[in-house]
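Let us walk through a complete example step by step. Step one is to write down the protein sequence. Step two is to encode the small molecule, zinc ion, as a SMILES string so that its atoms and bonds are unambiguous. Step three, shown after the inputs, is the structure prediction itself.
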Amino acid sequence: MNWISNYVRPKINSLFSRREVPENLWTKCPECGTMLFHRELKENLNVCTNCDHHMPIAPRDRLAALFDGGVFTEIDVPDAPPDPLGFRDQKKYPDRMKEARKKTGEKEAMLVAEGEIGRTPIVAAAQDFRFMGGSMGIYVGNAILAAAERAVKKKSPFILFSAAGGARMQEGILSLMQMPRTTVAVQMLKEAGLPYIVVLTHPTTGGVTASYAMLGDVQIAEPNALIGFAGSRVIEQTIGEKLPEGFQRSEYLLDHGMLDRVTHRKDLRDDLITITRMLLRLDPPIKGDLPKPTADEAKPGKADAQAGEAAAENADEGSAEAAQSGATTEAEK
Ligand SMILES: [Zn+2]
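Step three: the predicted structure of the complex.
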């Protein structure tokens, strides 16, 4: 211990730490390192405004951005036994659950809801990677079954957003049993002739990829999402070969016929509206006539766009001058 380590170093550290931006205001993009203002990032659905990197989005925010007007009703999911195996690794399973609940404010790793997209009633489920890696335990199985049953009852499509590291090891064989169980749930939809659409988000791996996440009538993925069964290191060690670049990423899987499309998060809602209407054999949606999610309404510039539209309408009727005066009255209102 000397003067340098006791006095100079803490002083230097405190100087630098003061310069760090408060965590609650800014998020650093893990891909390009740009500092992103929280509100701006939220408005952009957690996609980096600089490099388009898709960061995780909480199920509640995702569903709010999906449904008309951001309005949805949660569907009840039957509770799962809290600790069926009395499992313990470094921590007890119930303690891990308590932590995950506190961290996410959610009960479990899957949120199920119903509402309308482009005025088409649908059931949707979103998996929460923040909740113990989105792992599939009995509850997640219950959630998918509840969603499928609701969709069959209402004769509506089921859209699922997957995000998981796989089965929940704390539930051992019981978590693996969710693979056939959820497959049966998907089969119920197929027998009822209802669309089942999967949106794979980063990351979707393990037993989830080996069951419900790969059984969609339409398979969509967000850009650059990691999607696979076994990890690439395990595969490399097993086959003794170097894997190609971009292996197990959305774009690679699309090129190799494993996906139907890769869609940017901002275009997902519109794509899902079109696809569900196509699969239900409804007329294509009328452009501009659909209620937008609240996130869109909050964006500045919408009023300008409306004024612009009004001006364009007026332009059809008369001279450019009339259009200008029309736009002015629109603004004055
Ligand atoms: Zn970025």
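Step four is interpretation. The longest strand covers residues 196-205.
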